[in-house]
Write a structure and sequence with these properties.
Layout lengths: L4 E6 L2 H11 L3 E8 L2 E7 L8 E6 L3 H12 L5 E4 L3 H10 L4 E8 L2 E7 L5 E6 L1
Parallel strand pairs: 1-4, 5-8
Antiparallel strand pairs: 2-3, 3-4, 6-7, 7-8
């Protein structure tokens, strides 16, 4: 068994697609109409046959509440691995990304947390 798709709730699929592809650098794999929304997935440019990230609309009240509560509590919805957190932090700052936690060493890892502009906090981690 393996993970093939994981999803995050987003407030606006177009805005999320732009942020996750143009700002973060993920590659769009699927963008298919699905009722009033779309099935939009992205993958890492280094592993385009790897796990897909689904930009899931938060149109259900439970999804909106879940997303809102996590954000308010400062809890990241997902974690992305990077080679160098400080380098990625500097690159994203230049793109206007707002961080809630600057690069911080925690034992054997370094983390940082940013706002994805779509209702979520996302953590980056360097092992």
């Amino acid at each position: 068994m393996k993970i093939i798709v994981t999803s995050i709730f987003v407030q606006d699929q177009d805005k999320a697609l732009e942020f996750y592809s143009e700002t973060l650098g993920f590659v769009k794999k699927h963008d298919v109409p699905s009722g009033e929304f779309r099935w939009i997935t992205l993958v890492s440019p280094e592993k385009q046959d790897g796990t897909e990230l689904l930009l899931e609309p938060n149109n259900h009240p439970a999804a909106k509440e879940y997303q809102k509560k996590l954000f308010e509590e400062g809890i990241p919805v997902t974690m992305f691995g990077v080679e160098d957190v400080r380098k990625e932090y500097d690159r994203l700052l230049k793109h206007g990304v707002k961080f809630t936690i600057e690069p911080t060493e925690m034992g054997e890892v370094t983390i940082a947390v940013f706002d994805d502009t779509c209702g979520n906090l996302v953590q980056i981690i360097q092992k």
